[in-house]
Amino acid sequence: MLAVAAALCVPVAASAQGQTTRGFAPTVLPATIPIFPLEDIMLFPRATRPLHIFEQRYRDMVADALEGDRLIGMVLLKPGNEADYEDRPPVYPVGTVGVIAEAEELPDGRYNIVLGGLSKFRITGEDDSRSYRLAHIELIPEAMTPSDQAMLGDLREELAGLVPIGLPGIQVPDGLADEDLINGIAQLIEVDPVDRLGLLEQPGSLARAQALINLMYIRAALPR
């Protein structure tokens, strides 16, 4: 059975074509990052996302990131982007910045990477100086108070009980932190991309957990 897993960043290994490299997240995030817009795939803080990179501009993006701070922001494309996809179609402004925790460069120049989600951000502008997209961002913190942590713990059992409805075949591993569980489910549950964006835009893990519970109860009431 599949499992909801937390993001783990491991030490840097030697970089070589055809081999996997790994790295730590930086302690300070920059005000400008490369962004990777997709139609239906998102990244949540404290979760991981494997990606296959094949377009040349995004190969360039990964190569530059690996030479630098290893950061890439994931954002969601707005509907109707097909005619403008090769250029810079509109994206939703809220996304998640991730660190390249693992990277494998294939012999033909494509990459397999794993991003570890670090923080939400909002796009405030773009820089068109590269073949890929660069965005000026402001971070959106998700601080948890002790009261929030206690309430989130109370919701965990209810949410875990609903996982078979929203994520058939998913097993919740023992010892997984509450926030990691919430964000892992939000990233994996099968919902419309805009609904997933709505989960990301929640002000924190507590609100996200309640939104997930509401979604799952709605889903449970629908005919199968």
Short structural description:
The chain has a five-stranded mixed barrel with strand order 3-5-6-7-8. Strands 1-9 form a two-stranded parallel sheet. It folds into two domains: about 1-140, LON domain-like (Archaeosine Trna-guanine Transglycosylase, Chain: A, domain 4); about 145-220, no CATH class. It contains five helices and nine strands, in the order E-E-E-E-H-E-E-E-E-H-E-H-H-H.
Description:
The protein is α+β, with helices and mostly antiparallel strands. It folds into two domains: 2-140, Archaeosine Trna-guanine Transglycosylase, Chain: A, domain 4 (Roll), CATH 2.30.130.40; 146-221, no CATH class. Helix content is 31%, strand content 28%. The chain is built from five helices and nine strands. It has helices at 56-67, 146-166, 178-188, 193-200, 205-221, and strands at 2-3, 20-22, 32-38, 48-53, 71-76, 94-105, 111-127, 133-140, 170-171. A five-stranded mixed beta barrel has the order 3-5-6-7-8. Strands 1-9 form a two-stranded parallel sheet. Strand 6 (94-105) and strand 7 form a beta hairpin. The longest helix has 21 residues, at 146-166. The protein is globular, with a radius of gyration of 18 Å. The two termini are 22 Å apart.
Describe the secondary structure blueprint for this structure:
Elements: E1 2-3, E2 20-22, E3 32-38, E4 48-53, H1 56-67, E5 71-76, E6 94-105, E7 111-127, E8 133-140, H2 146-166, E9 170-171, H3 178-188, H4 193-200, H5 205-221
Parallel strand pairs: 1-9, 3-5
Antiparallel strand pairs: 2-6, 3-8, 4-7, 5-6, 6-7, 7-8
Helix pairs in contact: 2-3, 2-5, 3-5
